[in-house]
Amino acid sequence: MTRAWLAALLLIAGPLRADPAALPVLEVPAELKLQAEYAVDGMPAGNLSGLAWCGDALWAVSDREDDRLYRLTPAANVLRAEAERFSAPPVVDNGLPWGLRTRTWLVNQFRGGDLDFEGLSCDAAGNRYLVSEAHVAVLKLAPAANAGEWLPLSPGVIRQARASGMLLHFNALLEGIAIDPQGERLWLAAERERRGLLVLHKKQAQWACTGGCVLLSEGGSQPGPAGYDLPAQPRDFSDLAFFAGKLFSLERQAYRICRRKPASGEVERCWSFAAEALQEARRYGSQAYGMAEGLSLDEKGAWIGLDSGTHTRNDGETRPIVWRFAAPAGGWSAAK
Questions:
Q1: Where does the sequence pass through the membrane (predicted)?
Q2: How far apart are CA 192 and CA 222, in angstroms?
Q3: I want to staple 178 with a disulfide (CB 3.0 to 4.6 A). Which of 97, 116, 184, 240 is the partner?
Q4: Where are the domains of the chain?
């Protein structure tokens, strides 16, 4: 009887000392190396909210301007922004609740940018795709056109996203976009509370959900990078990029870029830019949140754009900032 009770007690209590090999190993993201830092001249409204390499140049968009993109050209230690104007037709009702649409409209009348463009991506043909957070819509601009057209997105996108807990809160709607080179697959990032990834496929005249629109939906908080006195913030996405067959997410609260599987959104590997971003001279006052809003990748590195808003950096800089990071050792496709 004594032995039976002892055996039962051991089963309930478990081993007194855990096997180290059985403990989960938390990967510490490798730090990216900063190659150059540029202030952006010529964006009077500031608020850089998206980046993409299109053709032979880097392009940017501001979430305070509904009628232009900016071509960025290096000049000394700055990027000169040259505006390319376009027009957008009226947005068709997409099924967002009236209260959410009304609140967004009222705020945008005050701060500027009714369409609230939060991301930019390009396909191999040179078409530009801009995601509107305010309307949960995507505007397509052909290379030689000065007028855009709204993509006919499946009505299931908003319905499925909201059923998964996304797109429920003001100013926490769509924040990133990526298109594949063929212009046939489109990914959208829901910003936060809950954050998530959506995917659509081009089917003749419409962009449809194939097997469901939602790839990923995540809630909860994201702790700040280790070693920095930053409070936890809601998990977020601030931009997406598609490169070399993989989807990459910009995660500003974690100060990192993550490579993900395009079909599921599952994380494969992450790289940090915290060591450069959180240097004292590059901080914005009592900064408690990330500024990184735009992401573009190529074989040699990454471009990350910062939306400084109305904040002044500790070194006195008030213009938007673009960083150029070198690609990690082994490239963006490296296993480890």
A1: none
A2: 11
A3: 240
A4: 35-326
